[in-house]
Amino acid sequence: MSRTRFALVFFLSLSTAWPCAVQAQRSLAFDAHALPEAGAVAIAVAEDLPEGGSFAAIDARSGGALRRAAQAEGFRGKADSTLDLKGFGGYERLLVVGVGKQSLAPRELEDVGGRVAQAFAKSRATRVELVWDGDEADAAAHLALGASLGQYTFDKYRSKKTGDEAGDDAATGKGELVIRTRAGKAAGDAYVAQWKPVADAVALARDLATEPGNALWPEEFVARVRAAASGLPLRIEVLDVAAMRKLGMGGILAVGQGSVRPPRLLLLRYDGGRAGDAPLAFVGKGITFDSGGISIKPNTNMWQMKGDMTGAATVVSTAIALAGRKAPVNVVAVAALAENMPSGSASRPGDVVRTASGKTFEIMSTDAEGRMVLTDALWYVQREDRPKLVVDVATLTGAIVAALGGDYAGLFSRDDRLAGQLLAAGEASGEELWRMPLRDEYGKRLKSPIADLRNGGGTPGAGVGAYFIGEWVDRALPWAHLDIAGSDWKDSASPTVPEGASGFGVRLLDRFVRDHHE
Ligand code: BES
Ligand code: MN
Ligand code: ZN
């Protein structure tokens, strides 16, 4: 018995030795602005195909053939349009990306980079050159960020690195993507220092979200984060079950007790700001699989609950990004990790739970487990770190999916200033938020006849869930709750987010820190 156990544990631990998902299919390189006369090339052009840039230069070189091709295809350079020419002039392929305006915001530049990377994902060209007629290093870096985000794939479980679709074979989408701008190689410095850490962190968040429940459980999540954080100036603290018992963390323990895989509370601290400055606290829901527990979920789409840890993935990945780019800020990221399973040791509906703060709640549904694990995480970080604000990130409710789909995450806050900063960061990063109401009377819907609160009840489901979480945050502390159920997973690809795990929140929180807390 103990032998087979050992063998099983050994086998499972091998999973950490698997190669990481291929995060950047083409490596990114930067070079001086020049217009190649052959090969696989992408250029951008504004609406009405103005004179003066690469488009006009190739047109002149081709004796007007490029404008004729554009005319024939009805291509006018409008945003989101493309002219894709194979074997045009000396080019193996010339991709003309319409960008509409002359001057683009960072998130629009990222979309251009992502569109180019995705357009060449199934190409066998080992070298793709993106010629951009601008001279700003930061703009070039955003093109690269978008390319990196857009070409993300997760193929570690395919025995041959071969896709299902025709023409998608091992030789495609490899080699390099060279970004040629008038900023030249300075663009590479900007990218590596400021934006590559963000691109890599988003890929980490996507990897963690995509990993199935048999490959990622609380302890394994901790191991993966330790590996990703190695070499970075991050302090890691992990509370195991014994430590959580000592602190009376009944909330997270109640969720974890039904699983053979014990819960963990993981904290990542990054002190890039002034010594003694109160940190920003980012707290994430990390349910590595949410079966619903005894209040078991229906079968349809239950598999998606392998991704019920994206809040935790987002906050730890953000801390890793901030450390990687040496942001001048103090941050603590907290991941409340548990697996929610039904078993003989699982919590029951009706159970009363005492959390570390001393506050008690009655379980109405064991499927409202996200708010249960967050109680103790919020209490602990407030006691240990005295943060100046708290943002929690959680795939909390199906109700937010019904309200907002995947286009926005729900933002709940009583603090207009913090809400405004987060909304602005969402707008700037492209990871958008929609503010939802958080009314005092939601508290009445959470009254229990025998405990301080109950963990669910009444509508609106997303707002009532937010209210419950807020009961574990000091009312004097600026606090916001982001419900990312829906926005954390995309059913169709966009330029910077391939279908699947989006890594939602990393770019948003990084932008929030850059614009408001550096
Ligand atoms: N993880 C789910 C929420 C969820 C649903 C995320 C769909 C992504 C897609 C959460 O733990 C949950 O089950 N919430 C319940 C709360 C209810 C029992 C109060 C819900 O939304 O039904
Ligand atoms: Mn649930
Ligand atoms: Zn859940």
From TrEMBL:
The active site is at 297, 371. It is found in: Cytoplasm. InterPro entries: Leucine_aapep/pepB, Macro_dom-like, Peptidase_M17_C, Peptidase_M17_leu_NH2_pept, Peptidase_M17_N. Mn(2+) 2 binds at residues 285, 290, 308, 369. Its cofactor is Mn(2+). GO terms for cellular component: cytoplasm. GO terms for biological process: proteolysis. The keyword Metal-binding applies. It is an enzyme of class 3 (hydrolase). Keywords: Aminopeptidase, Cytoplasm, Hydrolase, Manganese, Metal-binding, Protease, Signal. Residues 365-372 form the Cytosol aminopeptidase domain. It comes from the Bacteria. Mn(2+) 1 binds at residues 290, 367, 369. Belongs to the peptidase M17 family. Presumably involved in the processing and regular turnover of intracellular proteins. Catalyzes the removal of unsubstituted N-terminal amino acids from various peptides. This is Probable cytosol aminopeptidase. It comes from Luteimonas viscosa.
